[in-house]
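Dissemination and training. As part of the outreach component of the grant, students in the summer workshop were shown how a complex can be specified as a set of sequence lines and then modelled as a single object. The example used during the hands-on session is reproduced here so that future cohorts can follow it. Participants entered these lines:
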Amino acid sequence: KNEVEQSPQNLTAQEGEFITINCSYSVGISALHWLQQHPGGGIVSLFMLSSGKKKHGRLIATINIQEKHSSLHITASHPRDSAVYICAVNHSFYGGATNKLIFGTGTLLAVQP
Amino acid sequence: GAVVSQHPSRVICKSGTSVKIECRSLDFQATTMFWYRQFPKQSLMLMATSNEGSKATYEQGVEKDKFLINHASLTLSTLTVTSAHPEDSSFYICSATTRRETQYFGPGTRLLVL
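and obtained this result:
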């Protein structure tokens, strides 16, 4: 079992729909990241969070530390949101944390006009 | 925001040659840089962790003599794929971080070995 699991693996939506991507993890973490990878390959960091909720434009990320779960929401989705969304965590352990990331397998999102 | 560049963005080489990929943090000093590779439709796989002025730490299964990493300064790390073979064809991505946990990713280098 992967330490970071994402669902769904693939998601197709119609333009304007509200989208949710989920991430569950099984290790202690110091931070969780949501990343976006476009077809060209470049990766953009969308959010880094360790508690609560963050919002940037049409994107919202939440995390529940007790349940070891995070969600990424996209409101009013648009075809340009089509990309792979990756959840990653900084593993924390007794005595500290690491900058090394553990990655989920990604969610391929296609938003159709 | 912080910017990380990679050069080259694409490279095609013949089997047996060596290829060097540069990763630069353009507007900040990176205490640590990471090198990843990504095969089609798969997630990123960490290859090694590179700290300025010290030897890189390689992940299990990654040959350090095959993938040479040099972190000469706080803004530059290089990955050299030595004696490249077709199975080394992949997408290589670096990231850079400060003492905080945010990682800034480079745009990636697509390597094709013929």
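Chain B has a mean pLDDT of 91. Students were then asked to discuss how this feature might be tested experimentally.
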